[in-house]
Every structure is written in C-alpha cells, then in structure tokens.
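Standup notes
- DV: blocked on the single-chain target, sequence here:
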Amino acid sequence: MIMLVQFEISSGFQPKTNVNVNFGGKNASQMHMSHTETETDIYEDCYRRAEAEHEKEIANGSIVFGHSCIDANNQHDEQTDSKAEFNGSRIDVESDDASFTLDAGIGNAGPDEFKLKNGHLIHGTTKPIFTPQECQAMIDEARATITKGQLKSNNSNSNSNSIARGNAELGEARLSELPMARQLLQTGILDRTLLPFLKSRFGTADTSAENIHDNDILTEDDELVVYDGLIIGHLGPSRTQPVHRDSSLLTLNVALSPLEGYKNGGGTYFESVVHKDLGSSTSNAHRIGTVHIEQGHVLCHAGGVMHAGIGIDEGERWIMVLFVLSKKHVQIARRLHAMGGRITSGYDTRPDSTTTPEIDEAETIYAAGMKVAPKDHLLVSSIGSIYNQRGDHQKAEQCLRDAATYYPPCHKAAMGLGQMLMARGQMLMALDAFNGVLGTIGESDLRDGAWGALKAVGWNARMNAAQCSLTVAQTQLQSNEGGDSDSDKARQWAKHQLPQTLQELEIILQPIQQDEGRAHIISMINAAEEMLELANQ
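- DV (later): unblocked, structure below
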C-alpha cells in the first residue's frame, strides 16, 4: 500500500447538526466530480460527523481542564493544594522578546494554517514557564502512573493475545490521570500564560488569504480549549516517532527534563524546516530541522505542521504535550482524513480484496475532505492509495504526483510514485521521481546530526535511482548497438547519467558494513563503470 500524508484549506462551512452516519458502502469515485443532491447529502453527513467529534472533544476538554483555580478577582483559590503560587502571567506574552521564531514555510502548516495568524511559524519561549521543581513533580507523577499502568497491563495481557498497546506501554501518561499536573495548570498557568501566548502569536489571521472570511479566522476573542494532554517519557535508548501532524488546531510542548539529562538525540524535528539554516541567534534552535528547548520552556506550533519527537541514546527525556482546539473551528479536513485512516487501518490484512464497505466508506470520507481541502497532501495521497489498491494506477499515480507537488518537504508521495513506476517497469519515469527527491534533499541527509529517517530516505532514493539508471542504460545500449542516431542518443544519455549514478553508489556504499550488502553495491558500481566505458567507445 502506498505511503500516505495530510493537509487542509479553509472553508466557511460550519455544519450545525450532530448525526451518526452509516454511509452504506457508497463509492465516492462514482460521485467525486459531480454535484448531485446525493453527493451533497453524503458529504454533509461527513461534515456533521466531524462536527459531532469536535463538540465531544470540546466538552471533554472543558470537563478535564476547564476548571480554573483563579476566581473572578484573580485571587488564588485557597482550597487548592498546588505547590506553585501564581499571580498573573509568567512571561510578557505580548513581547517579541518572550519567544524565538522558526519558519516552517508558508503552505506547510496543514489545512488550518490560514485560519491562524502566521500559522506557518513555530514559536518557543526564551524564558522558562515552569520551574525545575514543578517539572520534576510532574515527571514523578507521570512515572508513577506509567509504572502502575505497565504492571496492570502485564498482568492483564498474560492471558490475552491482544496486540493493542495502552498509553503506559508507550511510555505516556494522560493528563486526565495526573491530578497534580492538571491542578498546576489550573492555578492560572494555562489561562494566564499558555493560552494567551498562543493567541498573541496565532490570532488574528489575514482575511485577505484565499477562501478566508472573518468567521473562519482565529481571533483573540475566540475561546481556546485544551482537550487532551500527555506527559511522555523517553528512556534511552528510545525510538523516534514517525513524522505526523497533531489532532489539534495548536500544540504546546513543554520540556520537563534538562538538556543535560539525556544524550544524542531529543528535541522536535520539523520536516519542512529541515533544509533551512536555523542560525545561531538562540541556543534553543539547532540546525537540521530539530529544535531543542531548555527545561520549563515551551514550544508551540500549528497542529498541522509535520513533526516528530526524536529518540535518545542515553538518559531520560520527559515532555508535556497539550493539544488545543478552538470552539468555533471544527477542522473538517483534518478530522475526515483521520476518520478515513481509522476505517482503513486494518485493510492491509486483506490485500486480495479491492472493494469492501469499509474502503468505500473511507473513499467517501476522503472525497468529502477534499471538497474542503483539495490540496491537502494527506487526503490526496490517501485516496490515491485506495485507487492503487483497486488497480486504478493512473488515478493513483496522479494523486501521488499532486501530493508531492502540494507538499514538497515530505518525500513519501514522490518515493511511492517512483516505486509504483518501478514495479510497472517504467524505469525512466521512476528515475525522474527519485531524482526529484534527491534534488529536494540535496546533501542535508549527509550532514552530521541529520535525522535518521531523512538519511533512510536519501539512501533509498539513491539506491532506487541507481537501479533505474543501470536498467535504462543497459536496455538502451544493448538495443542500440549500431551507429544510427538512436545509438548516439543512448550513448549520450549513458555518458550523462552514469557518472551521477556512480557518485550516488559511492555515497550509499559508505555506511554499509556487511560484506553481502557491500558486495551487491560494488557489483552495481562495476556494472556502471563497464557501461560507461562502452558508451565512451
């Protein structure tokens, strides 16, 4: 199945009814480009379903995080047991000096980017919001909760074949299970520092942007709600997360561990910042798209910015993540992409089937999302995956080309396109796709400290490009051995392409330690040199 990705453009549509929908196995491909009453009804059902999910999350978040321990006169509630006395904001949220800023690139912050003021920017505080004592207290509470959950899980799974993993097994503790951490937030840190900081950086949006209206944008009067939160513990060695976008309008990350508490890794990798020089204006910003913040500091970004938490080799790294929604912004496209993904999550186990009610429903949901966000790269590549599974390779290929165009920083669509073309024997077109990936990456994957997944993409792109190049060169040189113009063209192509192929093979050979792997690449190098010699005769 082709790898997928996600994005969204704004819409003024705000459905008003909550409904549970049964799509009845309707095929979105039959209605995707038309505007029948049936299509409208089905899509509006999708939108109402997204709104129902939104309202449920808002309600749950208000229950878990909504109670403030600050009364109307800004006085601390004496009944609370927080260790942190708190009066007013802990930083001047309006001051430019309160934060540093990074640029993810306009158009790279997901489908709701233009509902935010400068939604493509990433902000980090220059001063701590939480004290070391508060950070340690939250770590201790989360560690105890995770340990308790792991013990319970071990006992319950001893007689179970379930493969589902709970939060504790993932090294996570939900804030809904952490009363002390929630209480600390409710003493005013949330209402007087964190949420005002978000509003000062992301509300009010520019209404001149395409398809944006006054009622679409986040303003400083809109109510923000933390609907979910986690404290995550990385115990070295730990794995890096897959690149993803969050299920939120805005996300807050709080570093609970000091930087010296772990080695080799850590921080947050932002995919579309990877090619930018982050400079040295702040000690918090590191090169190669990964940002580290000091203990107690806060990093915030639009939930649609593609990112990943980086694993560590040694020590411990603890972070708190808060997921924030706006009451009036449903985020239809993001929700519909996630909804379709949940439906298809088990589909890979049935590769022999090209049409099921679940897949038809997912296609309908993705198509409804694309009506709202036609350039959301995750929606586009997701529906392309369905086309590919059904054998409609032409549509699938076009979807992957579109997804790669809409969001160039992600290489999944372009790599998937190249692999699809290779499997169909279209080596020259596949070579173009892989060369496109390498042109975007440049040498960023070869720098010290480059993210592991980026290194893997670079290695695979170079290997696939080399295989395509050798196949094309061999075919052309063997079929055009005469002295005609076609033979000259074949030789010229080989003389132009094969030196680049040799260079790429030398690069991918360097990290390989196993004799078998090195022998295979060396054989490719020898073949390229022989064909280049033939082309030069």
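- Follow-up: The radius of gyration is 26 Å.
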